[in-house]
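User: Predict the complex.
Assistant: Input components as received:
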Amino acid sequence: MMLEIKTEIVNEVATLHFDGFLDISTVDSIEISVSKLIDIHEVNLDFDKITFVDSTGIGTISKILRKLNSEGVTAKIRNIPAGVFEVFEILGLPEIFGEEVFQMKNY
Amino acid sequence: MALEKDLTVEGQTRRGSFLKNLKVEDKANSKKQVGRSADQETDDEDQNGSVLLSNGQVIVRNPQGLGKLPTISQGTNVEILKNGEKITGPAVVNEDMHIEVQVVNTDPSFSLDLNISKNKMKASLTVRKKPGKRYDIEDIPSALKVCIAAKCEQEIWPEVELQQVLDLLHENKIIFGINEDAIQEAVAFQGKKISIVAAVGQEPTSGQDSKIVYIYQEQVSNQDSHLQSGKVFLLSVTIDEVLAVKQLPVAGYPGMDVTGETVPPREPKDEPILIKGGVRLINDGTVAVATISGKPVLEGSFHKYLSVDPVYVVNDDVGMNTGNIRFIGNILITGSVLDGFSVDAGGSIEVWGDALHAALYANREVTIHKKAISTRIQAGGLSVNYMQILQMLRVLQNRLDSMFNAAKLLKSQPAFSTADLKAKGEGQLVQLLIDFKYRDIPKIITAFVQTLSESNTVLDPLLSEVATALKDKLCKLGPLRIKEQAEIELLIANVQKTVATVESLISTKVNITVNYVQNSVIRTTGDIIVTGAGSIASELEAGGSISISSGKVRGGQLIAREKIKIGELGSPTGDSGVNIQLLDNCCLEAKFVHPGVKLEHGTERLLIQEHYRDLRAWVNEGGLLKFEGVAQQ
């Protein structure tokens, strides 16, 4: 299982582009990538190329969202594929973190 | 110069039709003028042909010069044959052709439909009639194009014989209850359709079920007059007093269906007198008599059991002279229950005076004829505790079912990988669901465990077993210890089993009746009825209804499962708000409501902010609180 993460920073806004699986084997790399962000006031997690998630991956994402929110950093997940978005909805993530945080991919 | 021709016609009539064979004969030499129409003429040399119909005769005249040939076409209820061939559209004709016009008459017809009911107690007949029609052809003036049609001159209704219907009934083995008058009416009817009951069976005469007359209840019917006269009624019986008499069942008479088969009557029910303690049966079980003195009790929702409970009568106040009262049967107190004293009855409690800073616990009904101040009253025994527990368990059961379904749905999603669940256990997913969508589940479990621990009575051990399992598996980090899905299924099955057990432990509904309540807590499995001025700052919880229909409710909390009916709700100043909880399908009716009253259903809350008359609040099908009423200025 593989996950590639590319980070772009423009005007204190960081965008992390994910490509691969968000699962038990890749969650460490996500946490490391986010922890490297310094002096950022907004983080966008681009899920365009995420094809699978598992419970460990979702747990990690929710942990990251909570951490960023507690630090006053606005965090959003963008371009979520429909299948992954449905998983988030079943779990009630948009109800917890806010509908505006989760943006489904436009097809 | 155009020539006029006279034509003669020979006709003949066939059965069921009117047929005219027409021979066209040239009588040009007769020079008889039959007239001209505008479309016949072009000029003096060229003249259109024509056709006319007079007295059933078709007369054709050929065109002259370049005039047009006449045409004939077929209208309704006729057939036209040209030289022996039937025409289907407009056809050109001339004087040399052999033209037949055939009038199409129709014969009358009828049908008989017989329908026999499933139980063969009724035979219905439908007669459908179609009249025959006789047509005649109308005269048509001379024209280039003629359409020949026939008009109905006569309707002939079919004749149905009574015997034909009787034969039909006979063929269908209908021999009993034949209604010849109705059949005569149907056969004589001149219309398209008539339905009648041709035969009807005789219903069997029902027998009479056995009936149990509870003699002592005649005393109860006199209770109102006693109360009106200021006396307090005491229902009691003595040894060997007849409590109930059974009237034996009476057999009915057989009937007969339309085919002549005997229809047996329903077997009358023969219910025995069911008895419990304090009662015995004599005269082959047809009479029940008391074996002890006490209060007769009839209990049970479907099967009624008769018993006599001993009555302990306190002809005084319950206070320093008597101490606390505890008795296996019913307790009657002719005075009041005074400060700090308690009364505990295995049966019912009746207090003719007040209950002041006291505690009253009964397995059956509680009646306080005057007021209850700072008093705790509980009726229905352990059922009251079980009712509270059942409510929690039902909510929990729904939430667990929902969570389990959500887990199954998640695992069926193509974008959801379950590889980590195999490595770490199913609990990983349960934890996730509890962290997000089902955060209320640990709270419900905690409240359930707390209620069990606060109960000062011995409840069914199954409850504590389930509570422990729920707490271990679904609270704090418990879910992470779940390895297999089967563990969750077992947990849900145990909750379901516990719900069924608790439901079975809740016994007959019993009521609490009191004249006035203040700063008190009242709980019962049945209804709470406040007959007087009302309820002030009290907690009332009823498994049935709460009725304070002519009184006021100020402050406190009211919870009911069926209905809450109140005269005046809240206070004019709005500073003593009342909290009303509507359970299940409960509805609230109040004649007058002040602002500050809170309505609740589950997690939903609604605050009344205006004065209302005739307010009604309920929970709709979507589980939402609704109310209506007349707002007051």
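Residues 43 and 75 of chain A are 5 Å apart (CA to CA).
Let me know if you want any component modeled separately.
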